[in-house]
Amino acid sequence: MTDAADSVSPAHYSFRPASAEALWQQISTPRPTAGKARRLGEALVHAGLLTAPGLWHGLQVQQQEREKGQHRPIGQILVELGALTQEQLRAVIASWLGEYQVHPGDLKPEAAALALVPRAMAERESVLPLLIREDTLVLLMIDPGKRSLLDELRFLTQRRLIALQAAPDTLGPAIRKAYQPPGTGTEEEPAPVVRSTLQELLSTLDSTEPGDANEADALNESDTLAQIINAVIDEAIGRNASDIHIETELAPKSLRIRLRIDGDLATHLELPARYRVAVVARIKVMAGMDISERRKPQEGKIDFARFGGPPVELRVTSIPTSQGLEDVVLRLLTGVLALDRIDLSRANLLALQSVAQKRYGLVLVCGPTGCGKTTTLHSVLRDINGTGRKIWTAEDPIEITQDGLRQVQVNPRLGWTVAAAMRAFLRADPDVIMVDEMRDEEIARIALEAAFTGHLVLTTLLTTAAPDAVARQLGQLDIKLNPLDFSALPLAILAQRLVLRLCVACRESQVIDQDRLMDLASQYLESGSGSNTLEARTAQVERWRLQHGDAQGALRLWRHKGCAECQGFGYQGRLGIHGLMVRDEPANWLTLRQDGIEKVLQGLTDMAQVLAATDL
């Protein structure tokens, strides 16, 4: 076997054009392909890079993978087997297909071509636009076969593409030189991106003639649509939305974009139905999804910083709907919050921090869908990360990433389930195991056994039950442990809900009279385990006066009003209320409603919100 790539890179297929015009003349002239090989494997053998037995071995591996439902090109398999390098493979493909490896040399790319691809993207993706002829853009790439990047470039530039392979180690310097401002000897920071407002962009669309406009016309306006999508994401981030819903319809109905803010969906924008294909395609390109697949749901992720936005990630889900349409939902993924920023009372904060320092046991966070359970788990992990512990997580999907954690994305379709991941963790010397949800009895059994055998296990449970009820449910599982040992396993059970937070700019208050205070104290005591006697109610009111009263001891209830700051809603953001039951202090914990009432007296929310969230 030949060990030099030179043997497969004839000078006939590697050249250094003197000008853009010379390059165009060369690539637009019909040329024969090298050799008579009908398949890539034959071309590799003809080039002397591979023996016939080596090719046969690679084909056997490919066949075995296909029987398991995997479909990989033979070239990729041979590179992984060590039969040849990636550079050698690319050179053979170029020769076999009659394509070129181009050395940019002193070639000066056309300004019009450079203007189509931002410098940041060119440097990040190693792409150099060279020239435009009619509707065709010619560019240099390290890997001209990278389909996802070609889709993105095609959408961005709205041009047909001819992608040529750059000669090794030539592209980086050529890109820096091409984007360097004329007359300067040093590189200059790229000019800041001027982001148009959403209304300005919409007026651009509105100014086009509707006439016989169709989806093809809409795709021609995709540069504006791409900016509109960026602007929508920007506004969603600015308004603290948790989700963006793209809902498509056939004409004459509109494409509707809705934002979920503080738990409620509201229409944010409507576009003509003819833009539905272009909008969905653009989002798929950003998320690295297959734009041609419309019949099956897909998932992807957008790193918004790659498209000129702030460093925010979005999880994207596409779902086929009736009449061949697709809806898309984008979930804005929040960064990990410090434990003291998730609205825990001071007592709950100190108790949870103490629990997280334990060496073994089970910590459960409970609540309904969308109440921030995973966010809370990651806040706990953030508090103990970097303390000399090995932390494994099994998640589906991974929504929050943290340095230092060993995070695992499970894939049930391939047999890589949460239970399988947990069993693997137990053989990988863990200190802490986090599972994003204890969704079945098998996971619960493994989690409890892991906690019993000396590991700290953190997980969530989808339930609206109170912590004491959850503890009883765990005790009913058929797990072969000593009942005395099992009773000590749940270190803590945290129940959590989200309520709307009052807008501090417009909230209104009124002093509570003694009768109302006694009624509130009665609700408070009834929701807990204490006695609801006149003496207990009086003592509770006095504690509130000391903790939350003004200089005269007066207590206030707050209500929402509405102003420009909160867009007339009266609320801004959401607030966590918690009920934390700790094993070492089973009788000394506040219920969800009690924690909510404490936060009402602090002016953070109102009673209507607390009662609605704690109607157990």
From TrEMBL:
<dbReference type="Pfam" id="PF05157">
    <property type="entry name" value="MshEN"/>
</dbReference>
<feature type="domain" description="AAA+ ATPase">
    <location>
        <begin position="359"/>
        <end position="485"/>
    </location>
</feature>
<keyword id="KW-0547">Nucleotide-binding</keyword>
<dbReference type="GO" id="GO:0005524">
    <property type="term" value="F:ATP binding"/>
</dbReference>
<dbReference type="GO" id="GO:0016887">
    <property type="term" value="F:ATP hydrolysis activity"/>
</dbReference>
<dbReference type="InterPro" id="IPR001482">
    <property type="entry name" value="T2SS/T4SS_dom"/>
</dbReference>
<dbReference type="InterPro" id="IPR037257">
    <property type="entry name" value="T2SS_E_N_sf"/>
</dbReference>
<keyword id="KW-0067">ATP-binding</keyword>
<dbReference type="InterPro" id="IPR027417">
    <property type="entry name" value="P-loop_NTPase"/>
</dbReference>
<dbReference type="GO" id="GO:0005886">
    <property type="term" value="C:plasma membrane"/>
</dbReference>
<dbReference type="InterPro" id="IPR007831">
    <property type="entry name" value="T2SS_GspE_N"/>
</dbReference>
<protein>
    <submittedName>
        <fullName>Type II secretion system protein E</fullName>
    </submittedName>
</protein>
<comment type="similarity">
    <text>Belongs to the GSP E family.</text>
</comment>
<dbReference type="Pfam" id="PF00437">
    <property type="entry name" value="T2SSE"/>
</dbReference>
<dbReference type="InterPro" id="IPR003593">
    <property type="entry name" value="AAA+_ATPase"/>
</dbReference>
